[in-house]
Amino acid sequence: MRLKEKLTFEELMSHMKEKGIRFEIVSEKEAEAFLHDHNYYMKLASYRMNYLKCPPESKRAGEYQCLDFAYLKELSTIDMHLRYLIMQMCLDIEHALKVQLLTNVTENENEDGYKIVKSFLTDEDKEMGILKSIRAHKSGEYCSDLIDAYYPYFPVWVLVELISFSSLVHVISFYDKTYQSSILIDSKYINIVRDFRNACAHSNCLINQLAKELPGEPDSRITTFVSGMKGISKAVRVKYLHRSFTYNFTTLLYVYDYYVPESAKKKRYQELQGFLNGRVDNLCI
Questions:
Q1: How is residue 22 annotated by DSSP?
Q2: What is the DSSP letter of 277?
Q3: CA distance linking residue 1 with residue 222, whole number of Å
Q4: Nearest 10 degrees: CA dihedral of 54, 60, 64, 70?
Q5: Confidence (pTM)
Q6: CA-based R_g, the chain, Å
Q7: Which residues pair with 228 in a beta bridge?
C-alpha cells in the first residue's frame, strides 16, 4: 500500500504504529520533532529494511518484530557520519590519483602536459562532453580564471582541477593506454569508489539494506586483502563479503590502501576506528 503524497506528522505517527514501529525509547513528540528538524519520513523509513517483519501466521503479521523509532533515528545519524567519512576517503583517493598522473607526466620525456590533453579531447571527448561541462562552469567564481586562460586545450595539471572524478578516471585510463603505464587499478574497484562518491554527494542512504546479498562472488583480491587483517575469521569473512555494502566498503578500503600515502592514511584510519568503536559498536540490528 502506497502512502498518499502528503501526510501530516500525526498521520505519519499513526502509519508507523500500524507498521509495528514503537515509540518507547523515543517518544512520539520527540520523533515528530526529529522528522521536522533533521530528516524526512521516506528517507528515515528506508532503514526499516534492516529489520524483520512478523511472519504471516502471527497476530502481528506484516508488522516489524522489534523496531523502535530510536533505531531508525540512530541509523540515519550513523549513515550521515559515515557519508562524511567516506566522502573524505573518496576525495583522498581522487587527490592521490591526480598526484600519480601528474608525477607520471612530469617524469615522461615524451609528454609536455599538453599533448595528452589534446589527444584525449580529440579522440575521446566527442561522447563524454568534458569541454561542454567545463564551459558550463565558466561563470563560477573558482574556475573562471583557469578556463579563460587555457580553454580549450588545457595542460593536464589545469584540466584535472576542472573535471569530475569520472572524467579524471577516463583521462588517466587514456594516459595509461597511450603510454603503457599502470596508474589505474581494475576499473571495477574504481567504479565502486565513484559510486560511493556520488552517493555521498547526493546524501543517498548507504546502510539501509545491510543484509542485501552481493549479486556475484567477492573478488579474490578483496578476499585476500581481508584475510590479511587480524581478528577476522574465515567464517566472518565469507559471510560479510557476500553482502553488498560490506563488500563495497571493503573495496573502498582496498583502493584507499593502494593509492593513499601512509601519512594521510594514518589519520583517516584513526577517524574510521573511532567512528566504528564509538558510534557503531552497540548498534541494535
A1: B
A2: I
A3: 40
A4: -140
A5: 0.89
A6: 23
A7: none
Sign of CA dihedral 182, 184, 189, 191: negative
| Predicted confidence (pLDDT) per residue in 169-181, tens digit | 999 999 999 999 9
pLDDT per residue as tens digits for the range 130-144: 888 888 877 767 788
Q: Which three cell numbers stand for residue 209?
A: 539494506
CA geometry: angle 250, 256, 261, nearest 5 deg: 150
Give the integer Cα–Cα distance in Å for 274 and 246: 18
Collapsing DSSP to helix, strand or coil, 211 comes out as coil
Q: Using one digit for the tens of pLDDT, what is the confidence trace for 57-110? A: 988 999 999 999 999 999 999 999 999 999 999 999 999 999 999 999 999 999
SS3 53: strand
Predicted pLDDT of residue 149? 86
The alpha carbon dihedral of 151, 153, 156, 162 has a sign of: positive
